[in-house]
Design a protein that fits this description.
There is one protein chain. The protein has three domains: 1-112, no CATH class; 113-175; 197-225, no CATH class. The protein is built from seven helices and eight strands; from the N terminus they run βαβββββββαααααα. By secondary structure, it is an alpha+beta fold.
């Protein structure tokens, strides 16, 4: 096994690597290339982090740990970011979140992939089964399991259903007074809407086939029948 270590000392090389991974918030320490995998050892530049519960910033570091993040391939090689992540102590005495981990803007919380890699997986996850998704992900050098493909598909479909529900709820709120009146009052425009729908159905059946006079007769006869 051949292991190559590239120390980031040259400014031009550092600039090229930053442009390649396109994550300006990361500070790169070294790059390891072995077994067709590029491992980028990095940390987050910011000296402080925001508590996800109370929103207060903290500089009090409690501990460190490494997160292994999958990114898009570089020159047909799989890319792993070994992110040195800090745990901070929250300085708010009234906050129940005593310790929290810092988060990076381009990396999904509680995930092992960057947002760029996840967007690539989302483009075909909804159209393919778990097995086919594995094959495509391996060709793209973003290897994931069939359960991950299924989970991404489920999340996308759930968001779409939720978006439709939100649209319906917004429409109900806009016409809230009309909805309340329709429930509480004894008057209703249901009969009028029913006649309008009936006329529209007849019109669509005859579209481009007959004259207005025939349409008039069909509406009247349909009503009398």
């Amino acid at each position: 096994m051949t292991v190559l270590y590239l120390k980031v000392t040259d400014k031009q090389l550092l600039k090229m690597i930053k442009q390649l991974i396109d994550m300006p918030f990361l500070k790169i320490q070294k790059i390891n290339y072995s077994d067709d995998i590029i491992r980028i050892y990095a940390s987050i530049k910011s000296r402080r982090s925001k508590c996800p519960l109370c929103g207060r910033y903290s500089k009090r570091v409690h501990d460190y740990y490494f997160r292994t993040i999958t990114d898009l391939p570089v020159f047909q090689n799989r890319t792993k970011i070994l992110l040195r992540t800090r745990k901070f102590r929250c300085g708010n005495p009234h906050c129940s979140q005593k310790v929290f981990s810092e988060q990076a803007p381009d990396i999904i919380r509680y995930s092992r992939r960057t947002k760029k890699a996840t967007r690539i997986l989302e483009t075909f996850a909804i159209e393919l089964t778990g097995r086919l998704g594995i094959i495509i992900s391996e060709q793209l050098h973003i290897t994931v399991s069939s359960s991950t493909i299924t989970r991404i598909d489920f999340v996308i479909r759930s968001k779409r259903k939720l978006a439709g529900l939100k649209t319906f709820a917004r429409g109900m709120l806009r016409d809230l007074s009309a909805v309340e009146n329709g429930i509480n009052m004894r008057w209703s425009n249901g009969a009028v809407e029913g006649h309008v729908n009936r006329i529209k159905s007849i019109k669509r059946q005859m579209y481009g086939r007959a004259s207005f006079e025939l349409l008039r007769k069909k509406v009247i006869l349909s009503r009398s029948g």
